[in-house]
Design brief:
The protein is α/β, with parallel strands linked by helices. The protein is built from 21 helices and 23 strands.
């Protein structure tokens, strides 16, 4: 057995280019030495009676084109041989040594991922495990100039991060040595994102070696209390949060209950309200719908064709694919809900379909159960639910069997974006008026799903990544409201900021930062869609809409502090 292993290794060495190429080059050098000695003996060079050392010396300096001039040819035969030796040297250098021997070694040295982050790093965020959620997170952290380091076993992912200038090391995130190489003892946060089992090891090691705060992401909600017991400060299920948001949006689209209203303080709330195709306001311009005049609630944004339009123009047409973002008191939003419930004609039963019964789908079903809504589940696996069609939702016959042609809404929640897109296309074709609410697993799929026909899409990567970024930045995620994909609403105090005593127009906020003020709360008086001449007084709170980076730039430019509700 040992002999077989030895023979195998020997064959491997003999076949290696780092053995065969040097041996071949040495053979050529020896051949040229013999030819040189023969020609030198015939008087073709300016020296006589040379030894092997002199021959080796001449061949090497000729092949490397060094040419000191101490040994030179004195005949045509000597000159021709010198040319052949020089050209051979150039050919070996540029065709063999550099591309086949030196370059592969340099590539391995350059492409080998580092195993330790910079010693100078301190107060950084250690991210254990790379994923689409982490991709969004590091984009948010980089935009805020917050230091971070990623540990991941994938060499390809680590090298990609390093090429972008990020700190990343290859290894098992649950290994204690790797965690110490990431300097968890000097970190401000450690994020465990490597699966429930490895996350437990990460949390235990970090809690013993560092005083930093620990965030653990769970795949199964039943493991959450184990991670809390191990020492995690935050235990988060992105799928559950995504399912809750999608579920509440779906409930609003079916029953028009304002289930997703968020309290902004001072009895002011914000909510999303889908427009039903049979509603009389569908097809009207915003100025003709009379929403503010009849309810007191203000439309601060509309979600249309996959785009959030803040402070929409009065001429914006409301259609069946529009989602209104309303702001007002609880009573005003209730009246707006009554307007939304007004239908021009009967539109059948309030029946929904849940395509995919994984973690997100189950959370959507829980929201439906709480609000007494009927639904049919489509999944390839059988589940203990009241009404299920076993099959693939990306199949036309399965959708028809589930009742897509008479459904009010379909919620697409599968863990496969390609199947989600096909389901959306089929559902839109079978029922042009059905409300389609979909889950995207990666941000790049969001636009494609809107083009396929979805009315509202939320991606797991964006929701999870932005939520983690807000925890790292603020120690919690309750101080901002997610209006749509990547668009947030934040509350800022005017007191002590550069906005104090200035009008909205004078602040030039939109052109400087991209953020828009959609409301002002002052002494329990709420001013929706404030006029540009509105003076921002001490004690007022402004409601500002923008992306996470825009909001961060806004807070920095004007010295603003976020306020909780």
């Amino acid at each position: 057995m040992v002999l077989q292993i030895t023979r195998s290794r020997l064959r491997g060495v003999l076949k290696s280019p780092y053995f065969t190429y040097p041996v071949g080059i040495l053979a050529i050098v020896l051949l040229y030495m013999l030819i040189f000695l023969y020609l030198e003996g015939q008087g073709n060079f300016n020296v006589r009676d040379s030894d092997y050392i002199t021959a080796f010396y001449w061949v090497v300096i000729s092949m490397t084109t060094t040419g000191y001039g101490d040994i030179v040819p004195v005949s045509a035969a000597g000159q021709l041989f010198s040319i052949i030796v020089s050209l051979t040297g150039l050919l070996i250098l540029f065709a063999i040594i550099l591309p086949l021997m030196v370059t592969p070694i340099m590539d391995r040295v350059i492409s080998s991922p580092r195993s330790r982050i910079r010693k100078s790093m301190s107060g950084h965020v250690v991210i254990c495990g790379y994923s689409p959620i982490v991709e969004t997170l590091i984009s948010e952290l980089a935009g805020r100039d917050m230091p971070f380091a990623v540990i991941d076993p994938s060499e390809e992912d680590v090298m990609t991060l390093q090429r972008h200038g990020y700190e990343a090391i290859k290894g098992d995130p649950s290994d204690e040595d790797m965690l110490m190489n990431a300097h968890i003892d000097r970190a401000s946060y450690v994020i465990a994102n490597s699966g429930d089992e490895r996350n437990a090891a990460i949390v235990l090691t970090t809690s013993q070696a560092s005083d930093c705060r620990i965030i653990a992401l769970v795949e199964r909600q039943e493991t959450a209390h184990y991670l809390q017991y191990a020492g995690a400060d935050f235990v988060i299920s992105p799928k559950q949060i995504l399912g809750t948001n999608i579920g509440l949006t779906a409930v609003s689209s079916i029953s028009f209950e304002l289930t997703d209203a968020v309290d902004l303080g001072g009895n002011v709330k914000v909510c999303k309200l889908p427009v039903y195709p049979d509603n009389p306001i569908a097809g009207r311009k915003l100025k003709d719908a009379g929403i503010r005049e009849s309810t007191g609630a203000n439309v601060v944004a509309v979600f249309k064709n996959g785009e959030l339009i803040v402070n929409p123009p009065a001429g914006t047409v409301i259609d069946e694919a529009t989602v209104l973002v309303l702001m007002g008191t609880a009573d005003q939003l209730k009246r707006a809900g009554a307007v939304a419930r007004d239908r021009g004609r009967s539109c059948g039963i309030e029946q929904a379909i849940i395509a995919g019964y994984g973690d997100v789908g189950k959370e959507v079903a829980r929201q439906f159960d709480e609000h007494g809504l009927r639904y049919t589940v489509i999944d390839l696996k059988p589940y203990d639910v009241k009404d299920q069609v076993i099959g693939d939702s990306a199949d036309r016959d399965t959708l028809v069997k589930a009742g897509i042609e008479r459904a009010s809404a379909i919620v697409v929640t599968m863990n496969d974006d390609a199947r989600n897109m096909l389901t959306i296309l089929l559902a839109r074709n079978l029922n042009p008026h059905v409300n389609i609410i979909a889950r995207a697993n990666v941000h790049n799929s969001v636009g494609k799903m809107y083009r396929a026909g979805a009315d509202y899409v939320m991606s797991l990567s964006s929701v999870g990544g932005q939520m983690l970024a807000r925890i790292v930045e603020r120690g919690g995620f309750e101080d901002t409201v997610l209006l749509s994909e990547n668009v947030l609403l934040a509350r800022y105090a005017v007191s002590g900021s550069k906005l104090e005593g200035r009008t909205i127009k004078e602040s030039d906020m939109q052109s400087r930062t991209g953020c828009t003020i959609v409301g002002v709360l002052e002494d329990d008086r709420f001013i929706p869609d404030p006029d540009p001449s509105e003076v921002l007084r001490p004690g007022a709170t402004i409601m500002t809409v923008g992306t996470a980076r825009q909001l961060e730039a806004c807070a920095s430019a004007y010295g603003l502090q976020k306020v909780s509700k």
